[in-house]
Design a protein that fits this description.
This protein is of the alpha/beta class and 317 residues long. It is built from 7 helices and 21 strands. It has helices spanning 21-38, 57-73, 88-92, 95-98, 135-142, 150-164, 273-281, and strands spanning 2-6, 14-15, 18-19, 42-46, 78-81, 103-106, 115-120, 123-130, 170-176, 178-179, 198-199, 209-213, 219-220, 226-228, 245-251, 257-263, 268-271, 289-292, 297-301, 304-308, 314-316. A hairpin with a 2-residue loop joins strand 7 and strand 8 (123-130). Helix 1 packs parallel to helix 2 (57-73). The radius of gyration is 20 Å and the shape is globular. The structure holds manganese (II) ion. Manganese (II) ion (MN) binds next to loops.
Length: 317
């Protein structure tokens, strides 16, 4: 079974007031190419599709275009869940209609545990989707007073799945949460006020692969089977050292997964000062923008130059 795991697109996000839509469209074209070339059984987008609950219209157009290319043109099923930046209701619009075209959108949590099933030559793999929700929302949906935190919500979800999941069948859970042991960065919005919102990795112990969103650095957290695909682009200067990627996952007959990180090549560079100067001299035709991380420098976007201060803050536009 082959599938692609990506997350945290944050369509419509700006970088210090500059639009990133062109960059996002550029990287999403690479995703479409990777998907066409690798022909996965399914593509998973694990939350934070948009950067905010009411995204700019250009961001909606970009999602529409990308999904048409994946679902209609490449004929690939796609699973989407809401992240903490998305509006569950808005994302879920048309979900029941879209299922007939194999676009599966999970905006709001359900009071039932739902799954999707895809097959390879070794049999079925069951995909469980748990969109982001506040613990209070989960408590109300499931009528379970024990749910007081993200940890208890995920534990309750795993217990419900375990009760109905047939033994010996491979499984993937799609979620949007902060697993203890994961590395945070500044472009993520905390999941709970006054607490960490952490979930322990053992909540996912029964699944062959956990396809998660929320943390913007690609990584595993707490277990080899718990994966964050990371964000589409570097959304803060603190991410200059990250290599952003899509996870191309191969699952064997026993549910063991091999993950190949397929790198994203953005239009804009966000790199340390010295690296950026090297790139200036070795610039490639598609590298139109340069973002300089540290030291007093300049950021070029199109024909517009902006000066940046020592700490990466814009001091003149
Ligand atoms: Mn995010």
């Amino acid at each position: 079974m082959r599938f692609i795991h990506t997350a945290d697109w944050h369509l419509g996000r700006t970088f210090h007031h500059a639009s990133l839509l062109e960059d996002q469209a550029h990287v999403l074209q690479q995703l479409v190419q990777v998907a066409r070339a690798s022909q996965p059984e399914v593509v998973i987008i694990a939350g934070d599709i948009y950067d905010r609950a009411v995204p700019p219209t250009e961001a909606v157009d970009l999602l529409d275009q990308t999904l048409c290319e994946l679902v209609l043109e490449a004929n690939l099923p796609v699973i989407i869940i809401a992240g903490n930046h998305d509006s569950p209701q808005r994302l879920q619009f048309g979900a029941r209609l879209l299922e007939s075209r194999r676009l599966y959108v999970f905006g709001r949590p359900s009071d039932q545990v739902r799954f999707l099933q895809f097959y390879d030559e070794d049999g079925p793999v069951m995909f469980y989707a748990m969109p982001y929700a506040e613990p209070a929302v989960m408590r109300a949906y499931w009528g379970d007073d024990q749910i007081t935190s993200h940890q208890t919500a995920y534990r309750a979800y795993a217990a419900r799945v375990t009760r109905q999941h047939p033994a010996g069948i491979r499984s993937v859970v799609v979620g949007h949460c902060f697993v203890a042991g994961g590395e945070e960065c500044e472009s993520e919005r905390p999941l709970s006020v006054g607490g960490t919102g952490e979930v322990s990795a053992d909540c996912f112990a029964g699944f062959s692969y956990a396809a998660l969103g929320h943390l913007h650095r690609p990584q595993t957290a707490g277990s080899d089977a718990v994966h964050y695909a990371g964000s589409l682009l570097k959304y803060s200067f603190a991410e200059a050292g990250h290599t952003k990627s899509f996870n191309l996952v191969e699952m064997d007959a026993a549910g063991r997964c091999t993950v190949d990180a397929s790198p994203c090549w953005p239009v804009a560079m966000c790199a340390p000062w010295k690296v950026t100067w090297m790139l200036c001299f070795a610039s490639r035709p598609n590298r139109k923008h340069l973002v300089i991380l540290c030291g007093c420098g300049y950021w070029m976007k199109g024909h517009c130059w902006m000066r940046w201060g020592d700490c990466g803050r814009c001091i003149q536009t």
